[in-house]
Amino acid sequence: MNPKERDDTRDGIRLQVWLARSGITSRRAAVELIRNGRVKINGKVSCEPGARVTDQDDVSFDNRSLGTTQRQVYYVLHKPAKYLCSTADEEGHRDLALGLIQPFVKERLFSVGRLDYMTSGLLLLTNDGEWSRHLSHPSSRVEKEYLVQTKKEVPLELLEEFKQGIRVQGERFQCSDFSVTGPHSVRLVLSEGKNREIRKVFQSRNITVKRVHRLRVGPVTLRGLEAGRFRKLADNEVKALRLAGGSDIGHRD
Prior knowledge:
This protein has 3 domains: about 5-70, Structural Genomics Hypothetical 15.5 Kd Protein In mrcA-pckA Intergenic Region, Chain A, CATH 3.10.290.10; about 75-140 and about 220-245, Alpha-Beta Plaits (2-Layer Sandwich); about 145-215, 2-Layer Sandwich (Alpha-Beta Plaits), CATH 3.30.70.1560. The chain has 7 helices and 19 strands. It has helices spanning about 5-10, 15-20, 25-35, 130-135, 155-165, 195-205, 235-240; strands spanning about 15, 40, 45, 50-55, 60, 65-70, 75-80, 85, 95, 110, 120-125, 145-150, 165-170, 170-175, 175-180, 185-190, 210-215, 220, 230. β15 (about 175-180) and β16 (about 185-190) form a beta hairpin. α2 (about 15-20) packs across α3. The protein starts with a helix and ends in an 11-residue tail after the last helix. The relative contact order is 0.15.
């Protein structure tokens, strides 16, 4: 075990680290929030970034309680289509992916990135803000594998162009790899992942996408996990994702 991890356990963790892990902001930005008097520990303003908090302390930001320090938890959910990756639905009638897991978990979770409303498959959830931000950043280069089903055959030329790098309405998209799995289906591996990337690329060639299903994120797969079900990530899965892109987030103080 890293000596700093032992120190965290015994004496608490630095306030800016706790804020970052809780998903409020980055560690660097948390220092400024603390110095500006926007953070309180047990009802008292703390302007010292080096202050330490334990699981007995109540931390608040802008007078909104964030609760006591929490252990970091990591889950994988098999998200069905027609579930929204958000904490609330502005339209007021759509089901939330969080609703499939939050009633069974005491920690407040959020999704790592998002899947479109109609996209199904693997969704990571956590309460570790730093881990989530790291995985969501393009520099992490974490592979994400998708099964895509279309109404008509996808030309091999388009897939080759996608692998080399393709521009759609001024935005560049690129997949890491692909394999044709049937007349109207293909597997794609993305290592950056931009909003609605697959749908935009295919629609640019008038190819209607019937289904997008995420099979894998890094070493994590949906193997044995039915739609709507979830499981905890194994320690080796959490570590592998944490080290993606050569980073060692989550092990510093």
